[in-house]
């Protein structure tokens, strides 16, 4: 068992798991949803949904992972005892590979903008870095995958954990420094008002509640086996409910910090004459926000703007890397566990596969990019989360779950977690996720 590797410390696991959850979606997705859905009203509902929906599914993945000490495919096969577990795990592995394939492209853009910002600091102008072109996209996508490959190849404690305990504090320091600086600029006060002052008339709006559920679910990197695999590396003496709570709190905290940075920054951009609303009068979000609105703001700030831009894109690149290493680890763990491959060979094989898929997307961008994103994040991920609830709530024997939880928490049976979680993940979570999926499709 020890040959699989394990996290050497509690903080190492928390930072690695939180890093998996903290990705580009947190940084640009959460803030604009806040602005579009009643400001603090959305933040409040997001916090509620994170613990009512995402946390129970997160715990299901962690418990399954540590109990079975295996990758997603083998763990679910052991629980089901039939092909259903193998099929579900395989779909999860395929989904996470496809997510990483488009994620690497976007992360490559972050790297190119980071290098552009650094060269601007020393007055070197390389317009190729920020021009949308196939060669630029391929080069930086490959560069990002190489960095991800190097980290995962180092293993659990010497690769994933070692880098997570460096990258996550750096991310938190950068985002805090940027919040402080942006808050001193003209227009920031209006952004803070937008973020903090709730419009309570929208709190129980159906669209807001479903958006909050979706953001909470997807922001914690659930459904595709990343948390399950990380759970398989947790030491037996650790208290799983407490660890899961810590991961959820860090992930939620970073999402809120992102809102504290992005929303005021957008209104600072508005004060500097930058357009921040789209044709539908909504705040610009997604890639347009990151690669048009904010760069225009940085440019209007003069030389200091080049330094702020470098810090911002360093933040984005770190957020991308902490997520990508967990995604790559899912299929790598399967090849190491199930096929007996050495980690180095497994990591290279999966990285090469992801590169080929990413290259296909780059070369057929208009046809494939949006399609892959929709198929994985809007269809596959919520359905996988639903099935994981079925495994934890209906297929896996409750006494076996209890025995696993007693490792690290002997009195778990008398605690609040065991009184609520089993029936909650059995009945409530599947229903809510099914409703969210129905809404996203129809």
TrEMBL record:
InterPro entries: Na/ntran_symport, SNS_sf, YocR/YhdH-like
PROSITE patterns the record matches: NA_NEUROTRAN_SYMP_3
Record key words, sorted: Membrane, Transmembrane, Transmembrane helix, Transport
One Pfam family it belongs to: SNF
Chief place of localization: membrane
Localization: Membrane
Spans through the membrane: 12-31, 43-64, 84-114, 134-156, 168-188, 208-231, 243-270, 303-336, 348-373, 379-396, 416-438
Protein name: Sodium-dependent transporter
Bilayer topology term: Multi-pass membrane protein
């Amino acid at each position: 068992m020890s040959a699989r590797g394990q996290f050497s410390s509690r903080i190492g696991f928390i930072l690695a798991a939180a890093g998996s959850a903290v990705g580009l979606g947190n940084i640009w997705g959460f803030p604009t949803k806040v602005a579009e859905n009643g400001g603090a009203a959305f933040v409040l509902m997001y916090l509620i949904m994170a613990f009512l929906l995402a946390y129970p599914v997160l715990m299901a993945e962690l418990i399954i992972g540590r109990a079975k000490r295996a990758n997603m495919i083998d763990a679910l096969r052991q629980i089901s005892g039939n092909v259903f577990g193998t099929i579900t795990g395989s779909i999860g592995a395929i989904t996470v590979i496809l997510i990483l394939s488009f994620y690497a492209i976007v992360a490559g853009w972050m790297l190119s903008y980071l290098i552009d910002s650094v060269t601007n600091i020393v007055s070197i102008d390389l317009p190729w870095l920020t021009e949308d072109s196939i060669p630029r996209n391929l080069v930086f996508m490959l560069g990002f995958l190489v960095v991800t490959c190097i980290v995962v190849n180092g293993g659990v404690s010497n690769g994933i954990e070692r880098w997570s305990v460096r990258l996550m504090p750096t991310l938190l320091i950068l985002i805090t420094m940027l919040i402080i600086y942006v808050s001193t600029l003209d227009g920031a006060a209006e952004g803070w008002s937008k973020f903090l002052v709730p419009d309570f008339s929208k709190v129980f709006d159906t669209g807001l509640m479903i958006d909050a559920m979706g953001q909470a679910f997807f922001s914690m990197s659930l459904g595709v086996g990343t948390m399950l695999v990380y759970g398989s590396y947790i030491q037996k003496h650790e208290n799983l409910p407490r660890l899961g709570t810590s991961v959820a709190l860090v992930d939620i905290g970073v999402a809120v910090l992102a809102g504290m940075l992005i929303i005021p920054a957008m209104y600072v951009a508005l004060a500097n004459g930058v357009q921040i609303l789209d044709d539908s009068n909504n705040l610009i979000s997604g890639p347009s926000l990151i690669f048009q609105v904010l760069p225009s703001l940085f440019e209007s700030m003069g030389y200091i703007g080049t330094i702020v831009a470098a810090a911002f894109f360093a933040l984005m690149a770190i957020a991308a890397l902490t997520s990508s290493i967990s995604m790559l680890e899912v299929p790598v763990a399967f090849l190491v566990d199930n096929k007996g491959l050495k980690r180095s060979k497994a990591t290279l094989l999966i990285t090469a596969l992801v590169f080929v898929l990413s290259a296909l997307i780059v070369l057929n961008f208009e046809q494939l990019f949006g399609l892959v994103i929709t198929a994985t994040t809007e269809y596959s991920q919520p359905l996988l989360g639903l099935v994981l609830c079925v495994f934890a709530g209906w297929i896996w024997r409750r006494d076996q779950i209890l025995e696993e939880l007693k490792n690290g928490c002997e009195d778990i049976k008398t605690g609040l977690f065991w009184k609520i979680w089993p029936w909650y993940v059995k009945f409530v979570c599947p229903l809510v996720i099914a409703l969210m999926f129905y809404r996203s499709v129809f």
